[in-house]
Amino acid sequence: MEKKILLTHCKDAPGLISKITNICYKHQLNIIHNNEFVDNTSGHFFMRTELHGYFNDKILLDELDQALPQGVSRQLVGPNQKRIVIMVTKEAHCLGDILMKSYDGSLNVDIAAVVSNYDTLKGLTEKFDIPYHCVSHIGLDREEHEAKMLEIIDMYNADYLVLAKYMRVLTPTFVEKYHHKIINIHHSFLPAFIGAKPYQQAYDRGVKIIGATAHFVTNDLDEGPIIKQDVIPVDHNFNAQDMSQAGRDVEKNVLSKALNKVINDHVFVFRNKTVIL
Amino acid sequence: MEKKILLTHCKDAPGLISKITNICYKHQLNIIHNNEFVDNTSGHFFMRTELHGYFNDKILLDELDQALPQGVSRQLVGPNQKRIVIMVTKEAHCLGDILMKSYDGSLNVDIAAVVSNYDTLKGLTEKFDIPYHCVSHIGLDREEHEAKMLEIIDMYNADYLVLAKYMRVLTPTFVEKYHHKIINIHHSFLPAFIGAKPYQQAYDRGVKIIGATAHFVTNDLDEGPIIKQDVIPVDHNFNAQDMSQAGRDVEKNVLSKALNKVINDHVFVFRNKTVIL
Amino acid sequence: MEKKILLTHCKDAPGLISKITNICYKHQLNIIHNNEFVDNTSGHFFMRTELHGYFNDKILLDELDQALPQGVSRQLVGPNQKRIVIMVTKEAHCLGDILMKSYDGSLNVDIAAVVSNYDTLKGLTEKFDIPYHCVSHIGLDREEHEAKMLEIIDMYNADYLVLAKYMRVLTPTFVEKYHHKIINIHHSFLPAFIGAKPYQQAYDRGVKIIGATAHFVTNDLDEGPIIKQDVIPVDHNFNAQDMSQAGRDVEKNVLSKALNKVINDHVFVFRNKTVIL
Amino acid sequence: MEKKILLTHCKDAPGLISKITNICYKHQLNIIHNNEFVDNTSGHFFMRTELHGYFNDKILLDELDQALPQGVSRQLVGPNQKRIVIMVTKEAHCLGDILMKSYDGSLNVDIAAVVSNYDTLKGLTEKFDIPYHCVSHIGLDREEHEAKMLEIIDMYNADYLVLAKYMRVLTPTFVEKYHHKIINIHHSFLPAFIGAKPYQQAYDRGVKIIGATAHFVTNDLDEGPIIKQDVIPVDHNFNAQDMSQAGRDVEKNVLSKALNKVINDHVFVFRNKTVIL
């Protein structure tokens, strides 16, 4: 007996839940959890079904294809641990939290490697027996640097790339290659404070909350589908540096919560938004 | 075409979602929202299905009864506005919030009457053209007082009684009569600070958060099924009275959110807990 | 014996707390609360001192002027209730919350009048025996409309104008006249979603939090000094209208908390920020 | 030039702020931050003053003793890093967070050693080059075990002991020895769910929030002065184990925030409460 997750996304139509659950029932698969959502604005249907039983994947998927509207996207995902490569620059807190959570079992993920343009976090990474690759950007143009990074990253055949405070903007070539597979943590409650130095921007504006946003990376800077956001209160006592310090906990919490949803197959990306079931 | 909500609760068994949604599909009822939950600890299944179409209630329910395990509880709820009677003592904020939300359409409820042991809130209630009944408890024992209260309350044939800071404990007789139909707001994050003067208890203990709990009333004081809880931070600057003042917003927000869930048929009561779908 | 609040703001210099509290001590004024803040970036000093005793205002302020750096701003504020005029368009929740909080004593404020470009909220306002003035903007250009509004507003000699979902942009003439005396509630966590229809913008962007911002109005739309912000979580289930409905509670809570700080003389405005002591 | 913190606590009396800041001013000490609190219920005065300049500690303290009421508690604390010993059982998340925050500079603390009754966390601790002592309790009575623990702990001359999910109750002898020097994280929003298995208790009660409490340890189990509390929402989908997993982040955040306040000398303990300035 196995546990698998069936992810279904198609145009809405009458009887979808009935048809899908019927097929599962006929296959004697037990539904452990079922979550569905119909986006009435766009007329799209999303369903995440946790199943338990003996699977005949091909027959199951064929029957679904026949029963569901044309153009259905359906996927049967096994319980395999996802493999990630983490990209960082110099800050330790997001990387450290993922390392710790993987270490103590809070995050069911295989960290294949950490890649950076600095060697600052080599020591921390290697404490956890994970390969660390430093590819300095000095003397390289953006394309050359990315090509060298990708040479390493591609090697690991990762399911997702996690930008855990990687402070360089990626080129369209890079982003295309890992379409909807790159998760970034931005240190503001987007769409406020897009771009560089969001804490300085927040300080200058005099906001009373600061936050963090985990999102998939697209070619539009800080405009990709948002997975998770959270905020903390600040006040006049906080200068930009205090905000940056206080923001560390919310950044790492938001990133690891987003990652947890993604690697456990709860997240659909639809247009420029996420549906999290 | 009508909108109705099907609430199903039974022992878990294979194929329940499939069976229920099949029957709906055969009746050409469109599922707008569907939420289900299986409590694996107890082996119970709960489902809330928002349906749209032409209903033949009797046939639909008969078919469900045949398809589902024995002892199923299923209910088809129409879109009728729920009718409530509000019980208060002297504090205005919870009553005021419900009156305002009913007035501006945020809360889809018919406030049949307000009943109190004081006349303090008569003026406020009558601003909104709602009958106010004052039944003083002075000179009466608890049973006599409640009997007089019930004489009035029963008259209104309410779906729910809302204790919006009604500061007297109800007798088992009263509670039995409105079994799982009485919603209370308690001014602490239960189970902390059961009983009288929770803010004074919170101050004495030196807690750094205070809160409020909306729950169904049972015979065990402050022990009924919890519907909604929330908290706010406090610190050493707050004495018991400051806490009481600061707590007003969280009390009223928690109560009106709980009420909103209940009157829109999102809440199952199972044993001493709620399942909110 | 009286209670007054001394508000001091000047360039930072050695010994300020000592000098100010010495003068208070010499006047036999007891300090109930004292809060100070030094903005190290700008080198400015802010202090709010709650005093109790017999006041000789003129001598006290003269001695402070002599002791403190040139250009000091100091103010001795009595315990008088502040007078406000509320401006609204059609939405009831923010107005309703202020009316209720004034009614039950949670907000110590004298609501002199409500002014609107529609008569929608006349009924609600008059329930609380407060004058309501409807000045329709139909057929008038912006300046003409504001002139007619101001004719009424000026009459009430208000300490503050509260824009409780007043949906028109004010001209510089209007804003100048009530410099740092106009408090607005904007239905987003500024600086995200400036301008019209912030909930629609939030929905289109797919954010996972929505919020509200209370700020002083300046000539730059939605750019004035922020007093208070708060947020609530949302998800894919919320369309723009659901967000708007869910946002009501956070809007009204943020506005009434901001107003409470302002009318109790906790708020300094400095450049484009607030210091709240 | 040095930075020191003056902590003053005494019975309230007229002119205290004036007297203390005068003496600092005479010593040409610049006040960077000043926070004071008067507990009107008990008539006690608390002040935390961050000073910068050349210090003559003895003269300064003597002058304060003369100026202030009898029985004053005043302390001049240098900028030295505090030294802690961490006690753990088997769970990694709280220990891991403190190790990471110390490593990346978020928490300015010297972790002298980790002491446990199991060797589970030896590997993690030693990654960060910190001594780990395992003192098994097997075959020992409580007093014998604690005596062996204390032999090691005492050796490190720690300012504070941090119980980062140390799951054994300490004897009065142990607690007395480190009076107000032991910080514990309890995995509930105290006073709810005192004692063992708070997440199971929370699950059984059906609460809609769970939380964590950092407090000083006293002889009354889970009754010591509370430093910090926070909560997260849960619902019917969480069984006791899910709550325990979800609670990890709030536990570690609450503990490290409390620790940060304590080691930076923001926390006064007064009777059974904390005043945090």
Describe the protein's architecture and organization:
The structure is a homotetramer of 277-residue chains. With 277 residues, chain A is an alpha/beta fold. Chain A folds into 2 domains: 2-77, Alpha-Beta Plaits (2-Layer Sandwich); 82-276, Rossmann fold. In chain A, 33% of the residues lie in helices and 31% in strands. Chain A has 8 helices and 13 strands. The first copy, chain A, has helices spanning 16-26, 57-67, 93-103, 122-127, 142-155, 172-177, 198-205, 240-263; strands at 2-11, 30-39, 44-53, 73-77, 82-88, 109-116, 132-134, 160-163, 182-186, 209-216, 226-233, 267-270, 273-276. Chain A has a 7-stranded mixed β-sheet with strand order 7-6-5-8-9-10-11, sandwiched between helices. Chain A has a 4-stranded antiparallel β-sheet with strand order 2-3-1-4, with helices on one face. Chain A has a two-stranded antiparallel sheet with strand order 12-13. Chain A is globular and about 60 Å long. The two termini of chain A are 24 Å apart. The mean pLDDT of chain A is 97.
